[in-house]
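Minutes, methods subgroup
Present: GH (chair), OT, SY

1. OT presented the first of two proteins processed in the latest run. Sequence and C-alpha cells recorded below as shown on screen.
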Amino acid sequence: MFVDTAKILLKAGDGGNGAVSFHREKYVPSGGPDGGDGGSGGNIVFVIDENLSTLADFRYKRKYIAENGDNGRASNCSGKSAPDMIVRVPRGTLIKEADSGDILADLSDPEPVRIARGGRGGFGNQHFATPTRQCPRFAKPGLPGEQLEVTLELKLLADVGLVGFPNVGKSTLISVVSEAKPKIANYHFTTLTPSLGVVRIAAESSFVMADIPGIIEGAGVGVGLGHEFLRHIERCRLLIHLVDISGSEGRDPFEDFKTINNELKVFDPELASRPQIVAGNKCDLCTEEQIQAFREFIEERGYEFYPLIAAIADGTDALVNAAAAKLATLPPIVKYEPAPRPLPDAGKISNREFSVRTEGDVFIVEATWLLKILASVNMDDYESLQYFQTVLQKSGIIDALIAKGVQDGDTVSIYDFEFDYVS
C-alpha cells in the first residue's frame, strides 16, 4: 500500500543527572567535591533513505524515543552521552508540527536534520563549590529532552507531473518514455499509486516524470482518489496535461481540460498557474478535424499542444523534447523553507511551566520538571535547601504563591515534599 502521510510522536532523550560525591583518598585530606556531570540525551535525527518510497513503516511504529544520557559518577567522571536516534524517510518528506502545521524540515537534501533535541546533562556538585560553600551536597538533574508530535507528508520530487482524467493514457505514456513499469489496463483507477520514471533526452540530459493517479471532478475537495495525490505535483516544475481527445470514454475533451484545471485551482491556485503543456492522446481514434479543433482551443488559451498516440510512441519524442526545453527555462524543484523555531533555552528555569492551587489551607504546587530537582536535593543540608529555594524564586513559584495569598506558617506541598512558608 502506498502511504504518504503519517503522524508520529518524538521524544528525545533526557540528560543524565549530575553526581554528588566527595574525593576520599588516604593521605589526601579535604579532597573536596568530585561529582561528575551527566551525559546529554540522544537527539532524534531524520535522514533520507533512497531505498524508501513510502511512509508505510510509520503505520506500525508511531513512537520514537531516544536513549537518556548516563548519570555522572565520582572522581569527576562524566556520564556517557546517548547516541542519536536515526529515523529514515524517503526523499521529499516534509516534517510538520502536528498542532500548528508549521514546517520543521524538508527532507530533499542529503544532510541529516535534527528535529528533537536531547536534554543537557546536569552539573555535578564539583561545579557548586565556592569559598563559602566548600561541601555542596547537591547537584543539578539532567534536563528533559524535547517531545513533540509531528506529521510526515511525502511530496514526490519530480520535474514533470502528468495530470488528467482516469484512463487517458498517463501510465502508457510514462512507460514508453521512461523505464517505469506501471500497471496498465483499460479500466478506471488502474493506477493507485504515483509512479516515477526518468526520461532520458541525451547521454547527460534527463528529467524525472511522475504519473499521478487519475483526477476526477471534485478531487480538489476530496472526491475520488486524485485528491490524495495532488500533493505530489506541488513540487513539479512543469505539468503535462494529457487529454483523451477522441472522447472514447464518452466525455467531452474540451470539458475535461477545463475540469482538471479547475480542480488544480481549487486544491492550490498557485498549482493551477504552473507552466503546462497539453498533449492530446488517442489521435488514432479521431479525425484530423477533431485534432485541429482541439489544437485551436488549447493554443487560444496560451498553451503548447502536442498530438500523440502513446500506445505506439507516436509523437512522444516531440512531447518530451518540448518538456526538456521548457524545463531548461524554469527554476529548480520547489523546496519548502522551515518555519523559524526558537531553540529550547535549557538553562532558564523561567521557561518551565507550573501551577499553584489551594486545597483548604494547603498551597499545592505542580511542576513535573521539579521532580528531578527534588530528587537531587538533600533536604537535611542547609546549602542544598538554599539552592532549592533559589530555584523556586527564579522560576516564579514564590511570586505565584504570594499572588495566591500565602502567609507565613502556611503549608506548601510540592508532590511528596511539604514545608512551612517563611517570607
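2. SY then presented the second protein from the same run.
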Amino acid sequence: MLALLALLACKFDAGGIAEEGSGAGNTSTGGTTSFEALTSSGDPSGPHGSSTTETTDPGSVSDSDSDSDTTTGGPTASCGDGHVDAGEACDDGPNNGPSKACTPLCQVNVCGDGYPLARAEACDDGNQDDGDGCRNDCTLPKTCGNGKPDDGEACDDGNQIDTDGCIACKKAVCGDGYVQANVESCDDVSETSACNADCSLAQCGDEKLNASAGEVCDLGLKNGIYDSGCADDCKSTGLYCGDGSVHMPDEKCEPAVPPPHATCAGDCQSISCLPDRGNCDGDPANGCEIDTNTNKNHCGECDKGCLVKCEGGSCSL
C-alpha cells in the first residue's frame, strides 16, 4: 500500500514540472512580445528583475548601443544631427568640424584632442611630446615663423614674404636689403649710384645728395639757377660771380677775365676803364674800346668832340 502511494506521488510531481516547463518555453519563444508585455504591464520588477534582463529584445539593446561607439572612439551614429545624444558632448550639426568648437566626433574641441581650434590653438597634434612641432599647450615652438613674436623677435607674421613690414622676424627698415612694398623704391643696403641712402631712387633734382652718383650738390628746383650753388647736373656748384666766365645777363663782367682796357668790380656788375680809355658804347663786353687821348669824337672823355683833332686828350687846331 505504501509503495502504491509513493508511485502516485512521483507521477503528480512529474506532470507539474512538465506544465511549468511548457509555460517557460512559450515565454522564450516569443522574446519581443514577452519584453513588451512586461514593460507595458507596469510590473515594477520587470526592467530590474533577472527574468526581464534575460528576455530583453536583442534588437532594442543593439539600437541603444549604437548611439555611442565606445570600442573605437569614433563618432556616434547620430553625430551631426544637431542634437546632443548619448555619448556626445556637443553637436552643432553642419558646423561640427576639425577646427570648430565641436569636433567631428561631437566632442568639445580642447587642446590635445588632435583638432586645432581656430583662433584659439596654433596647433594640436594630439600627443604629449613637448619637443616636437607643437607644444603641449597647443602653441608652436618659439621659432621665427610661428606667427607669434617670441623673445628676441621684433615681429613674427608667420610668412615668408620679404616685401612686407616683417622680414625674418625683424621690422623692415631701409638698409636691410629688401624693398618694402609701398614704402621703399629700392634697397641696396647702402647708398649706390642708383639708390639713395634713404632707399629712394637716386636722381639729380631730388634734393638728396648722392656722392655715389657723382653729385656734389642737389638743390632741387634751384639747380642751374645763377649763383644758387648747384649746377643743373648736380655735379658742380654751377654759375656764380668769380667762376671765370661771364654769365649774361646776370653778370656784366668777370674779375678774373676783365674786358679790354678795364677792370671788373667784385660783384661782376660794372667795369672801370683804365686811364685814357673810355667805354663810350656802353657795352661792358668789349671793355673800354675808346682811346680818349686821340679820338676826336671822344677827346678826353666820351662824346667830347674836336673840330680838327685830339691830342693828349685835348682838342687842337
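Chair's summary of item 2: Residues 1-71 have pLDDT under 50 and may be disordered.
Next meeting: continue with the remaining queue.
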